[in-house]
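User: C-alpha cells in, sequence out, please.
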C-alpha cells in the first residue's frame, strides 16, 4: 500500500504541475526547477475484407508519457523522471492482448566540487513495475505477473559523468542495493522472479509461504547516449548492467534499450525500437500440452515500430 501511495502522489503532483505550464519547457529562475512533460499515442491498423490472400484484421494502440523535474543550482543537481507505457492489441479471433506495460521512476541527486568538472558524486533511486496482469498467451487463466509482482527497486551511491549537453551520461555504483518485490503470494509461492519459493510436505501441505521480497548488494553500471545520426532522426541508446556480489558475482543482468526517433513535425513522430533483457532470476514460461511449464532463464527481446502523435507541454 505504501508503494501505491507513493506512485499515486507522484502522478498526482505531475498532473497539478502540468496545468501550470504553457510551454514545452519552462525554467523557474527562483526555484531552479526545470519541468518537462511529453504525452504520445501510437496506433497501427490493418483491415482485410474479402482479401483473396487471406489475413487477420488487427488494431494496436500504445499510450506513453515521459515527465521530468530537474533541480540545478551551482554544484547540485537533482533529476526526477517518470516514464509510463501501456499498449493493447486486438486481432480477429483473439481477445484483447497487452503489448506493453511499464512504470519507471528514476531519481538521481548529484554534487560536484566545482562548475568545471563533469563528474558528480551521486545517489540514485530507481523503481520499475507494471499496471496490469501479464499472461503467457494464449493462456489467460493464470497471470505470470501483476502490479508490484514483480517490482524492482535500486538504491545506491556512486559517480556520474555527464556531458554539458546531457546527451551522454554514464553512472558507476560499486554499492547498489537491488530489491525484488513479488507482492502476489501465489507468485511468491512459486518462487517467481528469484524470490524464495514456498515449502510443502510430501502430501502437498504448505509448510512455509514463499518470500515476497529478495534483496541483493551488487555493482551497477548505467549508460545513456543520445545523438542525431541524420537530420530529424535521433538515436537513443540505454544500457543497464548489474551483478550481485554474493550470488554468482560476474553473472550480469542486462537491460539494453535502443530507440530511433524519426521527427515528422512538431506533433507527428515515428519510432523504431528494440529492448533486450537477460536476468538469471527470471525463468521463462512455456505452454506444453495445455500446461504452463517453467523453463530456464532466456534472453527477452521486444521490438517496436510505431507512428503517432506527441504533445509536449
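Assistant: Sequence out:
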Amino acid at each position: 500500500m505504501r508503494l501505491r501511495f507513493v506512485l499515486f502522489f507522484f502522478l498526482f503532483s505531475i498532473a497539478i504541475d502540468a496545468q501550470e505550464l504553457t510551454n514545452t519547457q519552462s525554467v523557474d529562475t527562483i526555484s531552479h526547477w526545470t519541468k518537462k512533460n511529453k504525452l504520445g499515442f501510437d496506433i497501427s491498423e490493418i483491415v482485410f475484407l474479402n482479401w483473396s490472400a487471406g489475413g487477420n484484421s488487427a488494431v494496436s494502440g500504445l499510450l506513453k508519457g515521459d515527465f521530468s523535474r530537474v533541480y540545478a543550482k551551482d554544484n547540485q543537481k537533482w533529476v526526477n523522471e517518470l516514464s509510463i507505457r501501456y499498449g493493447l492489441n486486438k486481432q480477429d479471433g483473439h481477445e484483447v492482448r497487452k503489448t506493453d506495460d511499464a512504470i519507471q521512476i528514476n531519481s538521481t541527486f548529484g554534487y560536484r566540487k566545482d562548475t568545471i568538472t563533469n563528474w558528480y558524486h551521486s545517489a540514485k533511486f530507481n523503481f520499475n513495475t507494471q499496471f496490469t496482469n501479464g499472461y503467457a498467451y494464449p493462456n489467460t487463466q493464470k497471470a505470470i505477473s501483476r502490479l508490484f509482482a514483480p517490482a524492482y527497486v535500486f538504491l545506491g551511491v556512486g559517480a556520474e559523468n555527464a556531458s554539458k549537453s546531457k546527451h551522454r551520461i554514464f553512472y558507476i555504483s560499486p554499492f547498489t542495493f537491488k530489491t525484488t518485490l513479488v507482492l502476489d503470494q501465489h507468485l511468491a509461492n512459486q518462487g517467481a522472479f528469484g524470490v524464495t519459493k514456498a515449502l510443502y510436505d510430501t502430501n502437498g501441505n504448505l509448510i512455509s509461504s514463499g518470500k515476497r521480497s529478495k534483496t541483493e548488494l551488487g555493482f551497477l553500471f548505467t549508460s545513456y547516449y543520445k545523438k542525431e545520426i541524420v537530420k530529424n532522426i535521433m538515436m537513443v541508446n540505454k544500457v543497464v548492467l548489474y551483478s550481485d556480489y554474493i550470488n554468482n558475482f560476474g553473472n550480469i543482468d542486462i537491460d539494453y534499450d535502443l530507440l530511433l526517433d524519426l521527427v515528422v513535425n512538431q506533433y507527428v513522430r515515428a519510432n523504431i525500437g528494440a529492448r533486450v533483457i537477460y536476468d538469471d532470476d527470471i525463468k521463462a514460461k512455456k505452454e506444453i500440452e495445455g500446461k504452463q511449464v517453467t523453463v530456464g532463464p532466456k534472453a527477452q527481446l521486444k521490438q517496436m515500430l510505431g507512428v503517432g502523435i506527441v504533445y509536449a507541454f
